[in-house]
Each structure stands twice: as structure tokens, then as C-alpha cells.
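Example 4.3 (complexes with small molecules)
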Amino acid sequence: MKINENFLKLKDSYLFSTVARKTAEYKSAHPEKEVIRLSIGDVTRPLVPAVISAMHGAVDEMASAATFKGYGPDKYCYAYDALLDSILASYRKKGVTLEKGEVFVSDGAKSDCGNILDIFSTDNTVLVPDPVYPVYLDTNVMAGRRILFSDATEENGFLPMPDGRVQADIIYLCSPNNPTGAAYTREQLKVWVDYAKKNDAVILFDAAYEAFVTDPACARSIYEVEGAAECAIELCSYSKTAGFTGVRCGYTVVPEALVRGGVSLNRLWARRQSTKFNGVSYITQMGAAAVFTEEGERQIGENLAYYRNNAKIISECLDGLGVWYTGGKNSPYIWLKCPRGMTSWEFFDYLLENAQVVGTPGSGFGKNGEGFFRLTAFGTEENTRRACERMSALLKQS
Ligand code: MLT
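Answer. The structure with D-malate bound is encoded below.
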């Protein structure tokens, strides 16, 4: 028996587990101190009434033999029509037309980011941005793929563009970006689409934060860009859009037009999902279907406005302190430059020990993240304000 030795090449623990462990160690050494967490992008607003009411209705259906549901419908990999119809309608508002068979409902974008790799050869070369959401990197390390990096830096606004000299087969793009909050315009994405088509590559486009886009020049779906259906898979989630981090629901779009080596990637993914996955619970799907109704959209709009206001509070605090940052405009993440030349982990410790505020060290996302730090706007407004007051008091005094 041999283990998968690629796992030995991974860092000891997942970034957010390390942050959680360090925070817990500080808490147990200082039980009297109140720590504010603005680190992992976990939401704090409750599910909106339209979702709750749809879920209650679905629970009641499960209680009666006449309306009880077992496995979901086989036709669309266990997704119900009501949910697929509402996803399709949400895409139409972005000017994108999809067919039901192109949308695969899952338990979230994080799992799909890893699972989608099943349909690609391990011989492929992967291009990931640096800094990067650790899941893209770690899942490819686990599979033993060759990994190249595209540098996201202060100079290019943390939005790297393709380098014609680099040949990659699988390209990860995340916009609005986790961790930097930077968002590509349609024009920039067109350059990536053209590059992918020229190289016969496939773009894995993580759109988990699309609901935060406010700039009309920025895309909310890669399919807003001409030609993307022939080279891109889009991964999307209800987590950040509708507060489903604990409920778990997302979807992956694999267009019919996406063919490589004469084979439909849609067919491969459908085959993979029907073999290894049994669908998302009916109750969750009915809750998700309510998100893109008129009422649901209005209600989630209020939650999104709440988080945008938190981002504004953090941005204004950093403006007042003269700290450089990006993000916070089309994104719930604020990516700041650590003051006084501190490294990311030095600033993490400094903030935790002196202000009891927890963020995420930029270096945990890659070498280009060194010297940067990520704060999330997903906290409560009260905690966001208090964290900013503490940071201001600390950084002004020292
Ligand atoms: C983050 O903080 O980067 C996210 O919460 C991670 C995730 O969505 O899995």
C-alpha cells in the first residue's frame, strides 16, 4: 500500500486552521480579553425571510408521504427545476443565456474547486495567481500537477494579465478576488479568454463574490465575455451572496460548447457528479431557489448593503491612518499593506496582542502576499466599528 505522497508536499495545515489555532492559543492565555475576528470570510447576517419561509415549506413537504422527496431528479444531476430556473433567470439579468443542463448544483464552490479537477489529466500544467485562495493550490498539489504562478502585485493592481510566453492548460481566475478584493473588467477578462482559447486551455472562474460587484465595467460572470463559453467553467456559491456558509449550496456552470480533445467537459462532469455525488438536500435547494426571487433579491440586497457598509467603515479607518489598501469596493475583502514594513505574520501578532483584532496574514496566500494583510467585511457592524477604533488607537499611538 502506498499513500498519496503529494500530501506530504502540503503545508502542515490549511491557512484558516492556522489562524484559528493561533487565535485559540491567545484566547486561552488571555481569557479576559475580548477578541474580534475579521479573518475568515464567514457571514454574520441571518438567512433572509424569503429563504427561511421556503425552507420551512420544504420541511413541511418532507413530513407528508404525498409530498416527501427522496433522491433529487436524475435528469439534472439531482437539481430541482425550481432552483435551476431561478439560477438561469439570475444569469439572464447579466445578459447570459444558459441551459438547465449546463448548471450543476452542489454543496458549494470550495468543494467544486477541488472536485472539478477529477475531469482533467494530472499531466496538465496549472496557472494560479499569487496570492491565491489556498484551495486552488492545495488541491493541485494533492493531485501532483505542475503549478505555475502569475504574479499579482501592487504594480499590476493585484490583477495579473496573461504572459504569452507561458503555456498553461488549467487557469484559475477569481474575480472579485479572494484575497485581494481586486476585480477584473470585462475588457481584461476578454484578454484572458483569448489567451485560453489560443492555448487550448480551460479557465476555472471562481465567481463566489460576484454579488459584491458595483463597478459597471467589471464582470459578474465570465460568460459576459464573448467566447468564454468555449473555454471557461464558472464556480459560484450562495455562501457570500445569501449567507449560506453553514447551509451549503453552490453551482458550477460547464457550458455545452466547452469541448477538449473532442470530448464534452459537460458530459465528463455530469458523469463524475452522478457517480460521486448524491445532490444537495431538497430543503436547501428550495431555500436557494428563493434567493433569486424578487423578494429574495431585495432582502439579500439589504444584507449585501450591510457588508458593503462594513467595508466602507474599514476603508475609512485605513484612509484616516494613511494605510495603503485595495479591495472593499467590489468586494467584501480589504487587502492592506502592513504598516511600518511589518511582515504579514508580525502584523497578525501585533494586532492580536495589542488590539485583540484577528485578520488573515497575506503571506498565507502566497509569496506576493508577504507584507499584506486581509480583513473581511462579513463581521457585524458593531464589531467592525470596534475593531477599527482599536486599530486606529493602536496605529496612531505607535
Ligand atoms: C475565506 O475566508 O477566504 C473564505 O471564507 C474561504 C472560503 O470561502 O472557503
